[in-house]
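QA checklist item 7 of 12: single-chain prediction sanity check.
[x] sequence parsed
[x] length recorded as 311
[x] structure emitted
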Amino acid sequence: MAMHHNIRVGDTVINSIDWEMTPDWTFGTYESWGGKERVRNNDERIYYFFIDGWGERPKLCLMERGVKHARIVAEIHAPDDLVRSCVKAHGKVAYYEQSFAIDEQIRTWLIDHVLDEGDSALVTPMTETVTHEDMGVKLPRWGGSIDRGEVVVIPGDAHSLSDDDVSNLISTWNFYDAELNAGGRFENRLFENGRHTIVDARTGLMWQKGGLDINSFRTITRQVKQLNEERLHGHDDWRLPGLAEAMTLMEPVVNDKGIHLNSNFSKEQPFIFTSEKRSGSGYWFVDYKQGRVFWSSGTIPGGFGRLCRPV
């Protein structure tokens, strides 16, 4: 771990730069299984440079990282062609893999132009702001009970699904999937249930409007256990949805926030874990940004969580 340079971010001088750390390594070190050989204590903070490729223009950033802690502390105004060249060299990646390790050219540029006695004007500190998301037209208020005779029982038990199983589920329930069933649509009956939850009277499920931040499957599973112990929103039976349950929320047309969901759900969980494993390896996800299901390892880079429970 080399830490021989410092950078000024506003009035703060940071000298614990880890040139070996990458976005891929952070989940293994700080979230998934814990890199005890690298982490001395839970309060330790390290800093590394990476390229944030989630927006229209990729940006060179400085990340502050620790156990269960991640915060972008600064944007570094590197030449666009240098940043784009680095991203291009990574080749084609999945939609959810938009954080990139820097290359030797960017490292050299940082040393020559920014670090130590470099140009502090190239460093813009990031301030934490609170944004209020537009949650769309308010849903009807839930009355506290549903007609059990009208509830459609959706498969929700956690088990292993093959690719063919998933295709059959989507076809059987006529779920919208941009690749597997572009003409599909599942009709919900959604009701407002306070600030944090929505009830679907069609499936008999209560959903988080928002959810859990991106993490490994193992970490999210621990979080669900803790939230149930704390009785999140007054309940102790929250769980990850099965793939079919998660697909019931998929809308065939994107809303004004750019996702295939009713606007009363937050856009901050664009792709979520389901409880289903994929036959052979990996976990099944539902991607509301791209309007489809997909599978991945579930550890790096991980996924978001939107929990549900029976009403």
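[x] summary fact logged: The CA atoms of residues 91 and 151 lie 46 Å apart.
[ ] second reviewer sign-off
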